[in-house]
Amino acid sequence: MPWPETFRAAIEKGVHDIAGKLCPLDGDEKRQLLAILRKRGDCPDGWKNMAPKKQHSILKNLHQAIYRLMNPDKRKADNDRNHARNRENGNQKAANDRNNAKRSQATREANVQAILANKDHKEPPWPEDTLEKKATEIVEMIVDKCGPDGFVHVCGGAWPGMTVDEAAEAECFGIGSNRHAVFIDDSKFVRYRDVSAHVELFTPYTGTNCVNADELEKRVQTKLIDMGWPQHRRMFVRKGAGSCKGKRDAGIPFPYYTCVLICEQSMEQIGIRLTTEKDRASRKRKRQ
């Protein structure tokens, strides 16, 4: 999995702090830098492994990471060459097929378990006054926390086989249709871990009724749009687009949620912008 840009920046800063410039480090210096990086939340789990037999390979990976930072053009050329070779020899397609099959199987199993676990937890739809009260309270919170410049995202979904926070993070900054933002400087898609230090994530609804989740999401989005909340300060484009129930029958109890992501800074201030169709088309061309 690619590292977040914040972690790459931490490696570069650490090298500068230790050596005074971006350059190769000796063994003791690499161990010093590794100890610093391991304290970060975005440090890869593999690098946090303290087993003695793993330290040599971890330090070697750190050395290679520093080398790539020192030689960004060569890094890009190497990556492009490897991607092209894997596409030509079929390795990329084979790997994609294996991963897709594993994900599909895991999703099916998680859905079955979620249905069994929630079969006795049927939840009635909210009356209109309850829905209106909850939506109004959420909008008031958004206005208060976003201030004059901040941005918001309101969405919902299901969360079988994961925590509700994991599902909400993926819905806000995930893959596929959930690629809502890119970095201003290089147009790379933004993941939740890249912006987690700048945003707050709330789940005002978790339950088993998809109608409650959908209607709360739509009502909050509608209120924001009707009050003139501008597009550059929200990640959702339309109100009430889609449903969190997927292909399931709406009457089946299933774990659903509505989430609100809030940032008190503007997108530009944290270095991101909304994704455009051009960004998505460019990504598709690169994969061909």
Fold and architecture overview:
There is one protein chain. The chain is mainly alpha-helical. It folds into 2 domains: 5-70, no CATH class; 124-287, no CATH class. The chain contains 10 helices and 5 strands, in the order ααααααβαβαβαββα. The strands form 2 sheets. Strands 1-4-3 form a 3-stranded antiparallel sheet, sandwiched between helices. Strands 2-5 form a two-stranded antiparallel ribbon.
The count of helical stretches stands at 10
Instruction: Indicate the mean pLDDT.
Output: 89
Q: Work out the count of structural domains.
A: 2
Largest sheet properties: 3 strands, antiparallel
Instruction: Quickly give the structural class.
Output: mainly alpha
Helix content: 40-55%
Concise description?
This protein is mainly alpha-helical and 288 residues long. It has helices at residues 5-19, 27-37, 55-70, 72-88, 91-118, 128-146, 164-172, 192-195, 210-226, 277-287, and strands at 151-158, 181-183, 200-207, 256-263, 272-274.
Brief descriptors of the model:
288 residues; mainly alpha; 2 domains; 3-stranded antiparallel sheet; two-stranded antiparallel ribbon; 10 helices; 5 strands; 10% strand
